[in-house]
């Protein structure tokens, strides 16, 4: 197979075992699953797919696994290519609803690896589907390359997402980083000389969250999408197990013919006729314990809608998780061969770790005409503190 030309990594050479997997229906579905879901409503260029990202992750894994045995390298390359086959339509935007109904996370892909289409190819190389599944979930030594404290999955999506959104925060010297990540006592470590490159990667992720991944328009669109899907499942238009195997285009088309509410939500998304923020606050206004309300957000939505005198489904509660900062567990091999945790070596990483929660926002979304009423009720319901505004800078 001829090399594949990628705008991020240049020419990507395709190994024979990868070529066979690329042509499967399970992998080709990823061509029609957007990497950033509905984020293209904010950044019009964000139309790249899980397929491109999977190729990029495979390329970086092959680079980082160059010192592994032939068998280990083949397995980690396959795992890298297949690590996202469990993503549903619009990627992370459907992830929570799929997990709610199926109890599968997007990396629970053993059922897909055991599909004869994939399993037959793995069997040719004497590879068990369970081995690839363990690598994808980071449960093995080599699996750390894909799912670890400093992994190639993250390297690729940060650079790729930055490129396609046009947000310049994703500039990372991954070449230098790859040269300074190695296995040491069966664990991946970062050589101290690569510290600045690692800081650059983590700073990129830190800045991309509020600018891209948690942009309020993307959050609103994602919430509308999820509520439309939830209604479709509740009304019996489809089941969540079926949902996980669809692509963006199939689901988009089918939702137009589902129940009235689901059809309205997808229609609004396709015409960018979105709900608006009735309430949008951070931890300076609400207690951190509010994150626990995620489990009962549907009950809260119904209650606020009842109090506002509007139909249920037109009040959307969005309580995001606080971003996981597992990078703090990355191990740095110092120049004196001593091992230290990354946040003990880098003050910058320590500051980022402490600052992630400052960008967290809870949202309550509704139609424009209900915005003021719903906002007032939600503010009282959540006991939101009013933060005084400083009208001008004071010269000291």
From TrEMBL:
GO molecular function annotations of the record: dGTPase activity
A Gene Ontology biological process term: dGTP catabolic process
Domain HD: 50-158
Matching Gene3D superfamilies: Hypothetical protein af1432
Pfam families per record: HD, HD_assoc_2
Protein's name according to its UniProt entry: Metal-dependent phosphohydrolase
């Amino acid at each position: 197979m001829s090399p594949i030309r990628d705008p991020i990594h240049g020419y990507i050479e395709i190994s024979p075992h990868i070529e066979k997997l690329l042509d499967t229906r399970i992998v080709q579905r990823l061509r029609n699953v957007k990497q950033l879901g509905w984020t293209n409503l904010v950044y019009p260029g964000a139309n790249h797919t899980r397929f491109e990202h999977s190729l990029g992750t495979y390329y970086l894994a092959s680079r980082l696994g160059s010192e592994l045995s032939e068998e280990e390298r083949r397995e980690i390359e396959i795992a890298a290519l297949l690590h996202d086959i469990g993503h549903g339509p619009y990627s992370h935007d459907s992830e929570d609803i799929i997990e709610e109904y199926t109890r599968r996370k997007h990396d629970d892909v053993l059922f897909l690896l055991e599909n004869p289409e994939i399993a037959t190819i793995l069997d040719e190389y004497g590879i068990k589907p369970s081995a690839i599944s363990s690598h994808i979930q980071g449960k093995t030594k080599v699996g750390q390359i894909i799912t670890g404290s400093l992994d190639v999955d993250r390297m690729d999506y940060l650079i790729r997402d930055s490129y396609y959104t046009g947000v310049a925060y994703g500039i990372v010297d991954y070449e230098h980083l790859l040269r300074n990540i190695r296995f040491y006592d069966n664990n991946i470590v970062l050589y101290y000389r690569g510290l600045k490159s690692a800081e650059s990667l983590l700073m990129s992720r830190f800045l991309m969250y509020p600018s891209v991944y948690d942009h309020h328009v993307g959050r609103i669109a994602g919430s509308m999408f999820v509520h439309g899907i939830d209604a479709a499942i509740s009304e019996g238009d489809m089941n969540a197990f079926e949902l996980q195997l669809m692509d963006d285009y199939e689901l988009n088309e089918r939702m137009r013919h589902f129940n009235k509410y689901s059809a309205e939500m997808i229609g609004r998304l396709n015409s960018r006729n979105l709900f608006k923020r009735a309430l949008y606050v951070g931890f300076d206004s609400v207690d951190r314990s509010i994150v626990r309300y995620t489990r009962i957000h549907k009950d809260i939505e119904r209650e606020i809608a009842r109090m506002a005198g509007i139909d249920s489904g037109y009040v959307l509660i969005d309580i995001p998780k606080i971003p996981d900062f597992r990078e703090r567990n990355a191990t740095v091999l110092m120049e004196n061969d001593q091992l230290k945790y990354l946040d003990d070596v880098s003050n910058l990483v320590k500051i980022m770790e402490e600052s992630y929660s400052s960008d967290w926002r809870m949202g309550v979304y509704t139609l424009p005409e209900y915005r003021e009423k719903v906002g007032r009720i939600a503010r009282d319901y959540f006991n939101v503190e009013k933060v005084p505004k400083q009208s001008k800078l004071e010269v000291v």
